[in-house]
Hints:
By secondary structure, the chain is α+β, with helices and mostly antiparallel strands. The chain has a single domain (about 5-145, about 215-250), classed as BirA Bifunctional Protein, domain 2, CATH 3.30.930. The chain contains eight helices and nine strands. The strands form two sheets. The protein has a seven-stranded mixed beta sheet with strand order 1-4-5-9-8-7-6, with helices on both faces. The protein has a two-stranded antiparallel sheet with strand order 2-3. The longest helix is centred in the middle third of the chain and has 16 residues, at about 130-145. The mean pLDDT is about 90.
Amino acid sequence: MKKEDLNKGHIHPLTQTIIQIVDIFKELGFVVADGPEIETEFYNFNALNVPPDHPARDMQDTFWLKGETKKLLRTQTSAVQIRYMEKNKDSLPIRIVAPGKIFRNEATDATHEAQFHQIEGLMIDKDVSLAQLKGTLLYFLKKLFGESVEIRLRPSYFPFVEPGFEVDMSCSGCILNKKAGGCCPMCKGTGWIEIMGAGMVHPNVLKEVGIDSSIWKGFAFGIGADRLVMLKYGIEDIRLLYSGDLRFINQF
């Protein structure tokens, strides 16, 4: 086969979207942080206000490593936030996004995989509010999905934030089709799609890394990158992203 006959490769749609997401947050002054995929129990759970007997651990059936003391495949990139705060506690304020692969013992189906990608964000400063959190997320989603996007925050529970919220985005399928939501299969007729969890960083988390919560505040959020790719391109099965099927990949 001649060299010129070989098809040129291109970036995977998941990677394309992660790069786009990171670039949007860079516009707001965020920097990229990274951490190991094999984590300790301390960084993955304990430092995030999830002690060994906490029921929130039941929501994240995890892959513990044989022969290792309290090590596992990370279940969230929140561990990167802990490592970064711990290392930079004397050089605040900080703004970071932490993209990466995470692992959970999930039953594989059209919307769940045992491995997927998450992007977490963290901002620590002296004057941080929910208004700033909402404004940041609204700016991000408008840049990714278009100016017609709106968001809403619903109270929810996450151990490492207080207060915590589920963040819903107005259905992109409804926006694109100029529908109100009643006929759209993406949002099941509600007009809204749950997109991420977010909230104000819990004082216990700040205390764990040596940051004075009476002076410094922060917000954090976690986004499933795979879910955003599926919504952005109308992909109905998450397994297609990992299939290696060129008939799917070459569409992007």
